[in-house]
Amino acid sequence: MPLAFKPSLLNSANPWATSKEDLQELYDCPHTGAVTTRTSMLEGFPYEPSIHRYVYFDARSSTLKHERSPYANSTFNTLGYSPIALVEYLDYIESIVTMSRRSKKPFIVSVTGTADEVATCHRLISQRGKLLDHPLLMEVNLSCPNITDRPPPAFSGTVLEEYFSKITAGTNKGESRCAWGIKTPPYTYIGHFHTLMDVLLSTTENSSPCPVSFITATNTLGSCTILVETFHPNYKPVLESESGDGIGGIAGVAIHPLALGNVKTIRKLLDQHEQLRHIEIIGVGGCQDFSGYERFISVGAAAVAVGTALGREGVGVFEKIAT
């Protein structure tokens, strides 16, 4: 099974998994069972520091907090993807695993782009994994809410079908490819879940298993804003955004109940179909302690990823959760 790593704890694709140094620290941590890269593209994302930012806030009051504050339990961001191209991440991974031959800790390489570009990513990741004789998986991020005029692809059945078709084309030709999965947005009504299930089922033929190995649920919740008071009673968005209106996504404790509900619903629907039962779930969204980890496992997650708490506490958060 692709997520059969121990401990069943890892980082999500986030800003604290951007550099080679970030990935090395996560790889060396004995309390991570796998390492996820920040979501990359073939050519790298056109990152603009003045626009693509994040802040910490207290979910109880929506007030800003210093990231080291114990009340900084959620983040608001206008981020896109990593400015580092996919091939550079594969080079980082090669360097890390070459220097650590005793470890076979998997890397989950998070990618995005058009369907054709993601299919190319799949081929490149598979080739590098075979060359290194090291477990590499691919996570297709179809859920970022901060790309102007580009709604998250995972909300559209037609678009999902295109991605699945392109990715599986090489495998259907007999090529050896790495296991892959998708990162979904926070679904908010049952129709979203049924659309996902319908597309997953459409990839099966003659009762063969679906080619998707895992689902990461969930990404940040979009269409949000955090306001700060300029002078009473006037407020303004705390961050700019690509559209200029200060709209972005929230993550962390603020979306924990929604993330748990997504994991539970997806697990229940997957288990209703023989061809989909093998698909495992990485739960992500607001896990900052052992109780959060247990909650995700109890609703059907095979592994739990950490983002906001990693940024606040560093890799020490994994030891805190694991012990």
By CATH reckoning, the class would read: Alpha Beta
Mean pLDDT value: 94
At the fold tier of CATH, the topology name is TIM Barrel
Label the overall shape: globular
Quick structural overview:
By secondary structure, the protein is an alpha/beta fold. It has 9 helices and 15 strands. Helix 2 runs parallel beside helix 3, helix 3 runs parallel beside helix 4 and helix 4 (157-172) runs parallel beside helix 5.
Describe the structure.
The protein has nine helices and 15 strands. With 323 residues, the chain is α/β, with parallel strands linked by helices. The chain has one domain (9-48, 80-225, 253-322): Aldolase class I (TIM Barrel), CATH 3.20.20. β8 (180-184), α5 (190-202) and β9 form a beta-alpha-beta unit. The longest helix has 18 residues, at 115-132.
